[in-house]
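Request: Could I get any protein with tokenized structure?
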Amino acid sequence: MENTADTQVDPYREGPVARAIEEQTARLPSDLFLWAGLGSIALALALEIAGKKEKANFVGHWAPTFLILGVYNKMVKLHGSDASAHKPMQILP
């Protein structure tokens, strides 16, 4: 029995949970995460000015998380799950 490219199973493919998360994440606009990051920075600054330093520190730590989620969102939109399995790799000059 012969293994062709159509019948071979790729051991490095994403599972159903990762694929479902990517489908839901791709529906969100990318600038949502940018605004959330900027909003958390502004809120942290306001809390710092109000003298609530511990709360400001807590909220200020949200910004990198939102921005990283925005990068993930953009990557999912551009590349998607297992994109290399569906499209040929592009070689840049």
